[in-house]
UniProtKB/TrEMBL annotation:
Name of the protein this chain belongs to: Ribosome hibernation promoting factor
Gene encoding the protein: hpf
Function statement: Required for dimerization of active 70S ribosomes into 100S ribosomes in stationary phase; 100S ribosomes are translationally inactive and sometimes present during exponential growth.
Highest taxon above the source species: Bacteria
Biological classification of the source: Bacteria, Pseudomonadati, Pseudomonadota, Alphaproteobacteria, Rhodobacterales
Keyword Cytoplasm among record annotations: yes
Location relative to the cell: Cytoplasm
Residue ranges annotated for the Sigma 54 modulation/S30EA ribosomal protein C-terminal domain, each copy included: 132-185
């Protein structure tokens, strides 16, 4: 497994890197089975340290966790505990997922755009001059080919509010999202 342990404008010493590697390896061996790489980023926000961890599993699923604490080791331990809780919740499905799927999740390329909001144009009149939106950023993204259950699990593990995916059974683009009432919504065109 590959580890990338970095700090944003802070020095991450060898002792912390060793601690991160041993704790992550121990925690992931209980649940994930075959993680491919982990990225752990430390930063400082006012008086607190922030730890963000992203673990990519060999099947293409991704687990993320983020924690804030006043000490850097405590921030990592809290982040590791959050990821442990997420993976424990999906342990059975992750283990079954590894047995069913022998090849990684197939990914399709797509474009992702960030559009300017109407709030930025508060000084101008309410009616825009044209109906064409202003594109602020354009990026490439990947759309995984998953079952609906795997998509919900991936959305939960990543902590994302929405996930666009290609439904394996119908070979169509679908969306799962977290509703305001806490339930999961599924858009199947």
């Amino acid at each position: 497994m590959r580890y990338q342990i970095t700090g944003k404008q802070i020095d991450v010493g060898a002792a912390l890197q060793t601690h991160v590697q041993t704790e992550l390896t121990e925690m992931l061996s209980k649940y994930a089975g075959r993680p491919t790489d982990a990225t752990v980023t430390f930063s400082k926000s006012a008086h607190e340290y922030v730890c963000e961890a992203i673990v990519h599993l060999s099947t293409g699923l991704t687990a993320t966790a983020k924690a804030h604490q006043t000490e850097i080791y405590a921030a990592f331990d809290a982040c590791c505990e959050k990821m442990d809780k997420q993976l424990r919740r999906y342990k059975r499905r992750l283990k079954d997922h590894h047995k069913e799927r022998t090849s990684p999740v197939e990914l399709f390329g797509a474009s992702s755009y960030i559009l300017a909001s109407a709030a930025e144009d508060a000084g101008e009149e309410a009616e825009p001059e044209t109906l064409q939106p202003i594109i602020v950023a354009e990026m490439q993204t990947s759309i995984p080919s998953l079952s609906v259950g795997e998509a919900v699990m991936q959305m939960e593990l990543a902590g994302a509010p929405v996930l666009v995916f290609r439904n394996e059974k119908k070979d169509e683009v679908n969306v799962v999202y977290r509703r305001d009432d806490g339930n999961i919504g599924w858009i199947d065109p």
